[in-house]
Every structure is written in structure tokens, then in C-alpha cells.
Amino acid sequence: MKKILVIALxxxxxxxxxxxxxxxxxxxxxxxxxxxxxxxxIWMGRDSESAGTSFLNGNALVWxxxxxxxxxxxxxxxxxxxxxxxxxxxxxxxxNDIPDIVCLQGTADGAHLVRxxxxxxxxxxxxxxxxxxxxxxxxxxxxxxxxxxxxMPDGAIVAFGDANVSNxxxxxxxxxxxxxxLLGLDEVKNAxxxxxxxxxxxxxxPNGNGNADEYGFVAGSLYEYKQLGSAFGxxxxxxxxxxxxxxxxxxxxxxxxxxxxxxxxxNAYLDGLIPKDFQSVDGTTKDSRIATGTAGIVCRQGITQMxxxxxxxxxxxxxxxxxVWMPVAFVADDNYTPCYPLELxxxxxxxxxxxxxxxxxxxAIRLFDYMLYGEGYxxxxxxxxxxxxxxxxxxxxxxxxxxETLDDASAFIGTNYFARLTAxxxxxxxxxxxxxxxxxxxxxxxxxxLDNVVDITYVTWQTPIPxxxxxxxxxxxxxxxxxxxxEAFVKFIIGDMDIEAQWDSxxxxxxxxxxxxxxxxxxxxYDAQNP
Length: 531
Description:
Layout: H1 2-20, E1 39-46, H2 61-70, E2 72-79, H3 81-94, E3 101-105, H4 111-118, H5 126-132, H6 134-142, H7 144-150, E4 160-164, E5 171-176, H8 177-182, H9 191-203, E6 215-218, H10 222-225, E7 242-245, E8 248-251, H11 256-270, H12 283-291, E9 295-302, H13 305-309, H14 315-319, E10 325-327, E11 340-341, E12 346-354, H15 361-373, H16 377-381, E13 389-392, E14 395-398, E15 421-422, H17 424-427, H18 434-437, H19 440-454, E16 457-458, H20 468-494, H21 499-512, H22 515-529
Parallel strand pairs: 1-2, 1-3, 4-15, 6-9, 11-16
Antiparallel strand pairs: 3-12, 4-12, 5-9, 5-10, 7-8, 13-14
Helix pairs in contact: 4-20, 6-7, 6-15, 11-20, 20-22
């Protein structure tokens, strides 16, 4: 019996020694690997959106490299993208089976972060950043607007979203310049020009196939049709219609300029410039219309998309040889000051947090530090250098057809599954495509098109993160408000609501549903940020 007790005691001591083999950390800077002992963190997020690949069975090359460099193994706790929001919210609400790191999805103003923080689910990262995240501190110093955008009302930082710092990181209306030239039309300068171009496109057979199959305006969702409001100076997509004019918060969905935009859209619908399926269209349909040469104007696409669509190696050119796309650079007139809002500097509707249950919070914050602005920045934003991208003149250039060198199981690189910074070194890399570097005139024209658009871009106002009480009030009001707003948008366009006869009642209904209350909350936040 004594021998058995000795053996049992030795086993307990051994187990205790293993349990005590924990990472030790010094404050300040660090070297790689991040951890001194094998460390596993459970990460809950969306599964891969690449067809046929998954974090659970694919070879996620970027994350394999991250593990090699940091010593941290990620155990993926993933859910299909379409189901993620519901599953994530249920898990967080039950406070059961909480991971170490979680991807949180919610609203642009960060109200969801307030709720999870107030409920004690996600960690206040402020002290961890100050003690263990020198790269994030440098990011905050380089881009103070990003730090401001993710800071809670009490000064805490609890999660990280994308940092958008490129003045080309936005969306614009794109148009077929070759069709404008074919029909003898000048470049579009305002809403009237855009309307006239769309009308000419649907009535003049510019694709030359003898069929009346051209569309005036195409989009990938009802949401994307709202981008056309840019010609009227409206920010209905990026920014959700919340803007500041001379220190006053304005909700553009009740403005006179929005009323003018609705009248314009209604007339476009009556003239057949907006497809009858505009309420239910999806991205696949939009892509098909572009590829088959029936789209003349695309309502919402990245500012720099013309660079890819005009590239002879792109599938758009394969399907529509000679197509020339360009972003529409609206020009201010006596009536409207057009605008293209850039993506939010701190895009926190999808953000990444460390939970209060995290098994090793220092390892987690140092992993964030490494990926967001440290040695892992290139892996996180671009992939693996030499495999899917190369550096050229300081810009990131994608390697064509790189996936063909890999088998299906390895094709999943795994970028865009953590917050990342987008600057011009990534956004403008397309300008180094061979077809532009080999033709100086074409490159100069392309750059001029982009410069003209940048002249009307602006950094979108970041609505301040509300307090917990304000977040609850916004959440209680915004559901019915947004539903009514979007239903009215469709009804005004198709004529089920008369713009002149019912505009005042529409505005009154929006106010009764709480838009003024939300506006007052945002005004308080703005005033606090700008004393």
C-alpha cells in the first residue's frame, strides 16, 4: 500500500508540474515566438467562404505560418457564414462554451460591443495593450482616428475592427466609357447626365447584338441602389445616412435632397432604367450582367475596380472584349455637392475581441498585436509573399493564377479572418498591372480617373459608440425604423407611395419611430468628442 501511495504521489506531482508549465511574460516589446510553452487558443468565427474549403479540413496556409512564427495554435470553432450571427448571439447570451477569441458582428456604431462588454463577456483590453502590445500602440499613434473609433464611452478598448486608411477605400458608380463614346455622349458630371446615359444605353443597343437587353442601372442588392444617391450628396450606404453638417448631426433619410433622389429614382423606374427585379437582385445576377455585356452602369463598386475590369487578363475582358469601365466623378453644381464616402476608419460592425474566459489573455493580445500591425501584418492583409503576392515598387501585387499551383485542400489562404489595416500599398497595387506599366497613356488616364473620384471622397463620420443605456434605446428603435425606411424606399420608387402627397407623413412616421431620438444620442456623442 505504501508503494502505491508513493507512486500516486509522484504522479500527482508530475501532473502538477505539467499544469504549472505556463508562459511567463515581460511587459513591453517581445520577440518571436510569442509564447515559451505550447499554447492553444480557441477562436470562434466564420468558416471559410471559399468554395470547398474549411478551417476544419482545409490547409489554411496563412494560419499555419502564423502558428510557426508565434508558437500559438488556433483551435477553430467555426460556423457557416450564413448561420454565424444567430449562433454567435445565442452562445454569448447563454454564456456557455465561450471561446478565448470571438468574432462579433453587429452594427456600425458598435452598440453590440457595449452590450457584450457590459455583460462581462468580453475583456477590457486597455491595460493589456499598454503593457503588452507595442505595435497596436504604434498603430494608435499613426492613426488616432482609428483609436477614437474603437474607444468606448468610458475610455475602454474592447475589440478591433478593420482600419481603413486609404483614400481609395470606398465605392463609386461605375460606367461603360466605350458605350458613352459609341453613342457620342460626354462624360457624366451630374445626376441628369447619369440619367441620360442610362436612357441611351437601354434604347440604342450599344452592345450591338440586335436585342434590347441592355440595363441602365444594375446592382447586387437593393442596398447597392442607394449608392446612386451620391450624385445628390447623400451617404446612404457607407455611413448609413448619418452625417454632420456644421456641427449638427443630420439623418439624410429625411432630408430634402433625399426627396429629390427618390423623385429621380421613381422616374428612372418608370422609364425602365431600373430593372423590375431590383428588390430581389443578388451579386451573382449583377456579375452575370456585367460579364454578358448587358450592364451599362453599376451602382456600387470599389473605386479602383476599373483597374481590374479593364485588364486584358480579367474575365470581364474575356467576355466583353473592348469594354472600358471608369468610375463616375460627379461635379458639384448649384443644386448638389456630390460625394463618395470612404469606408469607416474603424469598421467595427465586425470586430474581434478577447473574452473574459480566455485562458491566456496576454498571449491573445500579443497575437492581435503581431497580426494587426506587427510582424504578421503582411500575412494577415495579403497572404504569403512569393506564393499569392509579390512586392513591386512598395506595392502589393497579386500573382496571377497562383491557386493553380496548389491542390484544392491547400487553396484556402485564410486572410480576411481578423481585423486588418488597408492602406494605399494594398488598395492601389492594381496600377502596377502589366497592361498599365506597358502603356503610359493608359496608365495616366486610369490615374486621372481615380484622382477625379478621390476629389469627391471624404472620410465618413464615425458615429460614437453609445453608452449601454443609449445602445439599448438605439437597438429598441432601429429595427422598426430601418424596416419602415427601406420599405418606403421601394414604395416611393415603384409608385406605391406618392412622393409629393406622402412625403410629410413619411418624415413624421420616421420621427415617431425614433430617428430624432437616435439623432440626439449621436449628437451628444459628437459634442463629447468635439468639446
